[in-house]
Specification:
two-stranded antiparallel sheet, 314 residues, 67% helix, mainly alpha
Length: 314
């Protein structure tokens, strides 16, 4: 008997919540609330929660910690739903477990950022782990809608190679963007140090990678349209180009307007959407059908009964 637990909507909720955590984390940093709760795992030495004396900064930081708890509960629900589903699918159990284990790891790194007074490299690692969790959550959501048969490519090998190269450059854009953030003014606290790199030089390297990513994405979109692949793949590539154009526009405006906090927050959200759009392109280039049922071997033919002994006349 087949039973489908509510894993797919839970997986989507996990994906959305992981993106929301990035946005609220940006709010913590952009409002100077990074040390609103000056210790970890408690908010103060005497309390796990914020107090009125800590003001708005304490409330913002504590709110971000509460969202992490909610994220952990959603991840736990995904794991239990994957175990509950019949027939149980090993791939979904492992993916939900990966998302779930990433939440306490995220909490530990978040604690280290506080204990190191918002070291920019640790803050960057905190963000990159969120990107990894978004990838796992997205994979979990997509896998709930397909089978467990062998992955079957829908496009030729050169196009798959171009898509993988686009994904690598997309990841590089995110990593260098983290370094740009660590060199900029929004440290999360007025006394937090920066990484010491030249913001203009790092921003130029980031912009160069963005142009490369946009060029590869446009080339991939045109190539997919030309060869007549499934429409879902063309739409995914087109969506990625649109997201990148919007993200690039926000990035340039925020740079030339001296990084206003609202635009920086929008740029953080855009980074998540670029990453999700990149993953969507990769997943649209293959399909995974339902695995064929394994038929039980036919029962061996019943052995012929021994013939009755022929009476021998004496």
């Amino acid at each position: 008997m087949s039973f489908r637990a509510p894993l797919r909507p839970l997986a989507l909720a996990s994906l959305v919540a992981n993106i929301a955590l990035v946005v609220t984390g940006a709010a913590v940093r952009l409002t100077g609330s990074g040390l609103g709760c000056p210790t970890w795992p408690r908010c103060t030495d005497a309390s796990y929660t914020t107090t009125a004396a800590m003001g708005v900064h304490g409330a913002i930081e504590f709110g971000n910690r509460l969202l992490s708890i909610a994220l952990g509960l959603i991840a736990l629900a995904c794991f239990l739903a994957a175990l509950w589903q019949r027939p149980r699918r090993r791939s979904l159990v492992l993916l939900s477990l990966a998302v779930g284990l990433g939440i306490p790891a995220q909490g530990v790194i978040g604690g280290i950022t506080v204990l190191t007074d918002l070291n920019p490299w640790v803050v960057g690692l905190h963000f990159l782990l969120s990107m990894a969790l978004i990838a796992f959550a997205y994979a979990l959501w997509r896998r709930t809608g397909e089978g467990d048969g062998p992955a079957r490519p829908l496009v030729a090998a050169p196009l798959r190679t171009l898509a993988r190269l686009t994904a690598v450059v997309s990841a590089a854009v995110i990593v260098v963007g983290v370094v740009v953030t660590g060199s900029g003014p929004h440290a999360g606290d007025e006394h937090a140090r920066r990484n010491g790199l030249d913001p203009e030089m790092i921003s130029q390297a980031h912009a160069d990678l963005v142009f490369l990513l946009l060029g590869l994405s446009v080339a991939l979109w045109f190539a997919l349209r030309t060869v007549g692949v499934p429409r879902a793949a063309v739409r995914a590539a087109a969506a990625l180009v649109v997201i990148e154009l919007a993200q690039g526009l926000i990035g340039f405006v925020q740079y030339f307007t001296h990084l206003p906090v609202l635009l920086v927050a929008a740029h953080m959200l855009g980074a998540c959407l670029v990453w999700v759009g990149t993953l969507a392109v990769l997943w649209s280039l293959r399909e995974r059908p339902v695995a064929p049922a394994i038929q039980a071997p036919a029962a061996p033919a019943a052995a012929a009964e021994p013939a009755s002994p022929v009476p021998v006349a004496h």
